[in-house]
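Q: I have 233 residues here and want to know how they pack in 3D. Can you give me a structure?
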Amino acid sequence: MQVTQITENVFQLTLPIVNVFLVDHPAGLILIDAGPKGSKDLIFQGIRQIGKQPEDLRFIILTHAHYDHTGGLADLLKTVNVPVYTSALCAEMIAKGIAFRPNSKIVAFLLKLLTLNGKINLQFLYIQPVKASFKIVTEGGCVPDHQGLQVINAPGHCAEQVALFYPVKEALLFAADSAGNEKQLKPAFAYQSKKVNQLTLQKLAAFPFQIAVFGHGKAVPKEKFVHMIARRE
């Protein structure tokens, strides 16, 4: 696990397959996404590396329901009793232990075949159901308050996804999985719709951020983010 300081008060924790983020907000420490199952100890290690303690955690925000972003939530909430902010659809899925919702009847049928009608538990499809204190976020809302992170509906990769805009001195866009920057900067694989994802990217680019961060890969300045979108229009 690697901790990268993005700005004075924002840190990226690079877990084995995904990034999660810590925001040292005046109202308390915010965790963005929970990583896959088994991530709790790594996240707590990251919290200590930035000079905080797990009990300093006050808020969890989930960008979407995929297992690599939510699988670690159940274990985290056994130790820290904090509210979980996410979209209504994401909260519904997590409460049922659903990490992936197929967007077409064909995909749903193929998954039924692949899992022998649900008898085989594929990791990316399910997580441990969580009955958390969910706080439902909507477009334009802020977590934890008006000086916090602004919620942006960001479908395309999946219907329940939200991105976040943090309008501080070095303004940040938490782009979730709308794009990624592992081997190269590109739109993330779209399970829902590439067209919808492209519209989301254009929407995100209109925000006055300076740095974009992703669920997968390294941060980039806004100029590179905008250039990526322009290449695909």
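Q: Anything worth noting?
A: The helical segments are 40-49, 67-70, 73-79, 88-96, 105-114, 194-205, 222-231. The mean pLDDT is 91.
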